[in-house]
Design goal:
Elements (H helix, E strand, L loop, with lengths): L5 H9 L10 H13 L8 E2 L7 E6 L8 E6 L4 E7 L3
Antiparallel strand pairs: 1-2, 2-3, 3-4
Length: 88
């Protein structure tokens, strides 16, 4: 018998999303080229969510002092398709 206190914990574990992965070396080079082509100079973490249908880039900036943006790159075209203010 499963103790009642364990049920919420087990449900929470089952609800965890599949984690994103970091790009491989070849992917990273193409993603960085796409970011530079879109005018970005620096950026932070780059993740590829499960499914690989997009690349999420955090803290992308056009200048060192510019505002941080969250950016989505389309893997099939290697173009920036979404830009939004970075989460604080």
């Amino acid at each position: 018998m499963v103790r009642p206190i364990l049920i919420p914990a087990l449900l929470a574990i089952g609800a965890l999303p599949v984690l994103a992965r970091a790009p491989g070396p070849e992917e990273l080079g193409r993603i960085e080229a796409a970011l530079r082509g879109a005018g970005y100079a620096v950026w932070g973490r780059i993740d590829i969510p499960a499914g690989g249908d997009r690349v999420v880039v955090e803290a992308a900036r056009r200048t060192l002092e510019g505002p941080a943006r969250s950016v989505v790159v389309e893997p099939s075209t290697m173009r920036v398709t979404e830009e939004m203010p970075a989460r604080q």
